[in-house]
Amino acid sequence: MPMHEHHDSGHEPNDKAREQPDASKGYEASDVRISGVMVFLVALSIFAVVAALLAYGLGKVLNARMAKEDGPRSKWAQPVDVRSLGNLPSSPELQNKMAELTQSFPTPRLQTDDGNQDVTDLHAREDLLLDNYSWVDQSQGKVRIPIERAMELLAQRGLPVASVVPQSPIMTGEQRPTVAVPLTNGFARTGYELDQAAAGASGRAERNK
Fold first, then answer.
1. Looking at the 3D structure of the chain, how many domains does it have?
2. Reported pTM
3. Which contacts qualify for 50-53: CB closer than 8 Å, 24 or more apart?
4. Residue 122, in any domain of the structure
5. How confident is the model at residue 1, as a pLDDT?
6. DSSP 8-class letter at 173
């Protein structure tokens, strides 16, 4: 039986010798094959056209469905050219008219600054009444006096003594109501008011320098 010897040289057998690139020119001598590039561009163009047609058809279907649900167009759904109205901030006449509408609009109005300025104005009016003399009823001669003066008079004259009111006996399990001591002796200033007061104090200090 004939024996065939196999010599393993460490290389795979190759029927044809591999062509070695010619590096003597210093650059690639073969041309770029544009067939693959053209196939890709054609496939991309076809995909873009198909996607555009699908999107257009889907938009038509959705618009037709919404138009059917909304019903016929009324006078309120007509497009309006707002350019003829002009620019509101640059028109003093429209600004004055808007201010008049804002002043005449009934309360409660929309808060534009989280209510900080309204609370500050309320406290300013209260301070004006608490710290100054003012008429309550001029025809009857009733005058509102400052709270400090009222406290002095109250300390001099004392509080009126209330008459004793007979109390009915309490039922079993009940307790007589008691008056708790208040936690504060008045309203507290808001952070917005404190910031305004600090800014005013710093401004007065700079003017006095």
1. 2
2. 0.35
3. none
4. yes
5. 44
6. T
